[in-house]
Amino acid sequence: MPKLTKRTVDALDPEAKDYFVWDTLIAGFGVRIMPSGAKTYQAQYRKGGRTRRISLGRHGTLTVEQARLLAKEVLGDVAKGENPAEDIAQHRKAPTVAALCERFFQAHVMERCKPSTQGEYRRAIDMFINPALGSFKLVDLERKDVAELHHKFRDKPYQANRTLGVLSKMFNLAEIWGLRPDGSNPCRHVPKYREHKRERYLSQVELQRLGNVLADAELNGTETPHIIAAFRLLILTGCRLGEIQTLQWGFITDQGMELPDTKTGARRIPLPSAARAVLSTLARVDGNPYVIVGKVAGKHATDFQHPWRRIRERAGLTGVRIHDLRHTYASNAVSSGMPIQMVGRLLGHTQIQTTMRYAHLADDPVKKAAEENAERLNALVGGTMLPAPSLRIVG
C-alpha cells in the first residue's frame, strides 16, 4: 500500500485480531489496529537479535505526520546505538519517590535515628513529601519540583526547611544506592527560608507564678505528683523533655543522672540538691523502673502537653512551650555570669554555636559590672563630671 496518510489510516477496519500496516516511506514506521478499533502509531526496530517496538501515540491524538516525525527520532536514536524501547521499559520499572521514602525510612531512619527523630521523619514523609511528590519516578524529579514544594510552605519556614532537609538526605542516599547519578540531588541550591528562632525565657515574676501554680496543683491533686515533679526537674536541670520523661531510677547516682542515650549520646547530667529534693518526694513503684510513672503499668508518662496547657493557663503563660523551660534554665545561667562554654556543657550541646544563641544575655552582667566599677572610680576622682560645654558655630 502507499505511504500512511490520514485517509488510508481512517480506512483501516478492525479485525478479530490486532494487525499492523507499515509505511512505505519510512521503514519501521506503522500503525497498529486493535479489534476494538483503536489505532496506535508504532516505531519498530531490531536490537540485540530481538524485534523491539515503541508505541508513539493514538491516531486522532497524533496526526500521521506528527507520528512520522516521532518515528524518525526513535529510529535515529537506534542508529546512534541507543535502545529506546529498553530505556522505556527501565523507566517503567524505575522506583517512585514514594518507594524511596519507604526504603529510606526502613533502611536508614529506623536503623540510625532515635524514636523522636523517627516520628519527625515519618510526619514529613506522610504529610508533605508523598502527597506532593510520591507518584514521581525517582529519575524524573527535578529541582523545580522540589523548589515548588518548598515554596508551597513558605508561610511555615521551619516546616519547609525540615522537609527540604529530609528530601536532601533521601536523595543523597539514592545516589549511594545507585538509584540516581552522582551529584544529581535535586535539593541542591534550593535556598532555605530564614527561620525566626523562638527564644522565650520566663522572667522571675513568671517563674514565681509557675511555682505557685505547681504548688497549688500538688496540694489540690489536680495533676499527678509525677507530672508536677517532671516540670520541676525540667526547670532545675535544663534537661530536654525526653530525658526526664524516660529517666529511670537506675540512672541516678551520686554523680548525677547517668543517661545512656540522649539526643547527643550518653551523658552525665549534674543533679543539684534542689532536684534531688524533688526526686525524694516520689515513691518508687514496684515493677516500674521509671521515675515519672505513667498510667500504663511498668511504663513512663507519655502525655505532658495536656497537663502543661492547664498549668500554663493558670499561670498566665499563654504560648509558653515546655521546651521554653530549658531556654529559661540557660538564660538564667548566662545572665548570672556563667561562661558560655560551661552552659553548653550543662545543656549537653556538642557544638558551641548551639549555645551561642544565648550569648547576648551575657551583656547584662557585664553592663552591671561596668556601672558598679565606674561608680566606684567616679567617687574617687571627685564626684559627677560636668557635661561638656555646647559648641556654637559662627559664620
From TrEMBL:
Record key words, sorted: DNA integration, DNA recombination, DNA-binding
PANTHER family linked: PROPHAGE INTEGRASE, PROPHAGE INTEGRASE INTS-RELATED
Domain of life from the UniProt record: Bacteria
SUPFAM superfamilies: DNA breaking-rejoining enzymes
GO BP annotation list: DNA integration; DNA recombination
Full protein name: Putative phage integrase
Keyword flag Nuclease: no
One Gene Ontology MF term: DNA binding
Every Tyr recombinase domain range: 197-371
Stated family: Belongs to the 'phage' integrase family.
Keyword rRNA-binding among record annotations: no
